[in-house]
UniProtKB/TrEMBL annotation:
The keyword Transcription regulation applies. Keywords: DNA-binding, Transcription, Transcription regulation. SMART domains: HTH_ARAC. It comes from Zhongshania marina. The keyword Coiled coil does not apply. This is AraC family transcriptional regulator. Gene3D superfamilies: Homeodomain-like (1.10.10.60). Residues 181-279 form the HTH araC/xylS-type domain. InterPro entries: AraC-type_N, Homeodomain-like_sf, HTH_AraC, Tscrpt_reg_AraC-type_HTH.
């Protein structure tokens, strides 16, 4: 709407120029006092969940260069969850911030990749990034020289940066329980319908399996841990009645065979499913 209202195709790049460290609150303040440019970029990667839940950042090293890549998630119809303009603004915002924290207006990436198709006028993009730009790429990415990653930040303060890291991490953790609870409910609901996979569960939550795994990692848990928790809860529930045989229960919980279920059940409850059912019956 802003692009349509202004008639400026490169509006997102203009917007990116207004991005400052304080735009990202505690994360931004940690970036502002990072030791080096590399430390600042890595903070973006580690804490990307605080920026958006529809994408994530990856950093990789190619020869003497570092690739800072933005991966935008897609829905089940393979449509990007974030528009080109939003990521363009963020991408140039990162470049602006690196110039801000080093107080070096000439700190430029060596190349930029944008998913946006080639615009009619690419000059505003070139003036902003001041490096070669490739349009129509699969992902948005910045390429920096490794030597630039070692550049010191003007107001570096490692102790203060760590304090802001803790604030950011605490905020992310406070975001997490609702998602974990929803995920656990989905597992409980889906397990009785047959074997449940990460891909199937991710599809139910309208996200990629890679994003699902990333969210779980941020919460220091895993799909397997939540699956075991759900299986344990349902196993106890099913065995409390005689409606299902042990063979039926093993398949309802997604085990390939009864032996596998019995082996895991004994690890959970230190007894066999049959003994567990007898104990419940004995206690009325």
């Amino acid at each position: 709407m802003a692009i349509a209202a202004t008639g400026t195709e490169s509006f997102s790049i203009q917007l990116g120029g207004y991005v400052k460290a304080h735009s990202f609150h505690a994360l931004g303040m940690a970036i502002l006092v990072s030791k080096t440019v590399g430390d600042a970029l890595q903070r973006f990667q580690r804490h990307s969940a605080i920026i958006s839940d529809s994408g994530y950042i990856e950093m990789s090293f190619v020869g003497d260069n570092c690739r800072f890549e933005v991966n935008v998630e897609r829905d089940i119809h393979d449509i990007r969850l974030l528009p080109f303009a939003a990521i363009n603004a963020f991408t140039f915002g990162v470049v602006s911030m690196m110039r801000e924290i080093t107080e070096d207006a000439d700190l430029n990436p060596i190349s930029v990749e944008l998913c946006e198709p080639q615009p009619k006028d690419s000059k505003p993009y070139e003036n902003a990034f001041r490096c070669p730009i490739a349009f129509g790429k699969p992902r948005e990415a910045l390429m920096y020289r490794m030597t630039d990653l070692d550049r010191p930040v003007r107001y570096a303060n490692e102790s203060l940066a760590k304090q802001h890291d803790q604030i950011t991490e605490s905020f992310i953790k406070n975001m997490s329980p609702a998602f974990e609870d929803e995920l656990y409910r989905q597992i409980l609901n889906e397990l009785p319908n047959g074997e449940l996979s990460v891909d199937r569960l991710a599809s139910r939550l309208n996200m990629s399996s890679r994003k699902l795994q990333g969210k779980l990692q941020q919460q220091n848990t895993s799909y397997q841990q939540l699956l075991d928790k759900a299986r344990k809860e349902l196993a106890s529930k099913y065995l409390s009645s005689t409606a299902y045989s042990i063979t039926e229960i093993s398949f309802l919980l997604g085990f390939a065979n009864t032996a596998g279920f019995c082996r895991v059940f004994k690890r959970w409850f230190e007894c066999s499913p049959t003994d567990y059912r007898l104990r419940i019956a004995a206690h009325g």
